[in-house]
């Protein structure tokens, strides 16, 4: 199954089971991917989380049913996954701008989200510069925090984590540990499915480091792998986000590679990240 077909199979599964209790783990299984890697791919391609897509689609169908039937609002609330009519009405108003009872009278203001169709570019307008290399396993040292993939909690929490380590001096302490091949701070995402924890990741801010483990830090072994190392040019976070989008919409669909399922890395060298010529990297393990 090709890369695009895998993504579409997962979207088909969401649509077919939209009124059921969906888990990111089961959705990702349809695409032959881990929960984390599918969630990340989906978020980059669509600029929204899986949970938000499901919520929007359910409320779209609820609005359509509201306009075409005499179904009671309380029945619609339960049908579309809300524990109370109040919770349903609050979510409905947030998306559509009107209460369900008002929507039954006036359809002109409602906001509809159609079923998602993924489109990719077969040829990028801008060239992507990358190297292919192989490395034996190596160790990174730093700090980690666990984040849930549900409701996009990881997307909200990780930028806050970076702000905190930059503000309290932790990032400077980690930079002083760098003594390996990769010269920069690392952002490392680790899928926790292997630990029996669904819909969760560990996120590390770390450095490649060999030697005694300093107090207050932890270490992680990055497995041996073939890596695609993409160049990123421009200010953060826009340049990094743009490159991730190019990777998933242009490079992966035509490269013949698959993500290896092990941690990928974002590399931030010591320099001014707001500069127009700031250089950083994305390391993706492939098979």
Automatic annotation (TrEMBL):
GO terms for molecular function: DNA-binding transcription factor activity; sequence-specific DNA binding. Keywords: DNA-binding, Transcription, Transcription regulation. It comes from Peribacillus psychrosaccharolyticus (Bacillus psychrosaccharolyticus). This is AraC family transcriptional regulator. SMART domains: AraC_E_bind, HTH_ARAC. It comes from the Bacteria. Residues 8-106 form the HTH araC/xylS-type domain. PROSITE patterns: HTH_ARAC_FAMILY_1, HTH_ARAC_FAMILY_2. InterPro entries: AraC_E-bd, Cass2, Homeodomain-like_sf, HTH_AraC, HTH_AraC-typ_CS, MarA-like, Reg_factor_effector_dom_sf, Tscrpt_reg_AraC-type_HTH. The keyword Lyase does not apply.
């Amino acid at each position: 199954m090709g890369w695009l077909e895998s993504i579409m199979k997962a979207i088909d599964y969401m649509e077919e089971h939209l009124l059921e209790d969906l888990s990111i783990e089961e959705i990702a299984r349809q695409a032959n991917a881990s929960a984390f890697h599918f969630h990340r791919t989906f978020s980059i391609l669509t600029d929204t989380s899986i949970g938000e897509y499901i919520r929007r689609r359910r409320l779209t169908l609820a609005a359509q049913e509201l306009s075409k039937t005499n179904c009671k609002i309380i029945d619609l609330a339960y049908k579309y996954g809300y524990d109370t009519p109040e919770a349903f009405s609050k979510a409905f108003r947030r998306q559509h701008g009107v209460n369900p009872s008002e929507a039954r009278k006036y359809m002109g203001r409602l906001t509809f989200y159609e079923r998602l169709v993924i489109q990719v570019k077969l040829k990028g307008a801008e060239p992507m510069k990358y190297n292919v290399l192989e490395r034996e396993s190596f160790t990174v040292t730093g700090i980690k925090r666990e984040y849930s993939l549900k409701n996009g909690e990881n997307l909200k929490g990780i930028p806050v984590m970076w702000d905190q380590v930059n503000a309290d001096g932790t990032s400077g302490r980690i930079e002083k540990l760098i003594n390996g091949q990769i010269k920069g701070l690392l952002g490392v995402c680790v899928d926790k499915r292997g630990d029996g924890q669904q819909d969760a990741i560990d996120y590390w801010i770390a450095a490649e480091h060999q030697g005694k483990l300093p107090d207050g830090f932890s270490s992680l072994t990055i497995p041996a792998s073939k890596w695609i190392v993409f160049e990123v040019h421009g200010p953060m976070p826009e340049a990094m986000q743009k490159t991730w989008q190019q990777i998933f919409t242009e490079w992966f669909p035509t490269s013949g590679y698959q993500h290896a399922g092990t941690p990928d890395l974002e590399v931030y060298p010591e320099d001014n990240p707001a500069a127009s010529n700031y250089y950083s990297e994305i390391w993706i393990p492939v098979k």
